[in-house]
Amino acid sequence: MKKKLIAFSVIAALLISMLSMSSVFAAEEPVWIWRPAEDGYVTDDGMGTGEDAEDGSYTTFTTVEGTVEGYFYPGSAGGNLTAGGMDPIDTIATIALVKYRTTVPSSVNAQFAWHNGSAHDFKSFRYTGDGEWHFAIADLTTDTDSGAGPWTDAASINWFRFDFANNIAADQTYSVDVAYIALFESEEDAQAYAEADGGAVVPAPGEDEDQDGDGSGGTEEPAPPQTGDVSVIVAVAAAALVLTMLLKKKLAA
Length: 253
What we know:
This protein is an alpha+beta fold.
């Protein structure tokens, strides 16, 4: 009877460990995603140029000299996702994840722009312009630039634009490589997706964005461990305890 109980304890501990590991590594799929090289993009005259990478993994957006910003609309119709072959964005997805690469100076920032059916609103974030791939995570419900058309005031967003370069010098051109923009219900989901995708620097959990792009940055306080991480620790400790008991029993026999 005791041997059966010990065997059951070992199996239970291993199952807990496996389930916990899956909770850490499983990445939630985005509610909405735009891959410009695959889904297409359009812009107003003179507000930017786009060139897809040969392997189709990203698009290089470049500003036009003499303009004050550069932007693109997802899909094939400016300002209308459904007309452009894209799905409208369900506003339960409040967290935006951008995979990008650029060498723009810290004075240049990026901005999401949308119309919720009654008014426009905007959300800015800053780049890390070191020429390496990075992820940016932004909450579209907090610290918006106008506050006139809140993201969650509508069930879905059909007018959506990405301003890849703002606050630019009129006599300069700037380029940003964009792999995708994805929308999630939580920062944890966006974080997990970025970590699973890899190939770019992932911001620390809970790291605030510098909304004005002035280089002031965000909090440096470490975030608490995620639930999945704690479960793994507990499961491994439980399995180790059971194995220790088995080893002691064998040695005492």
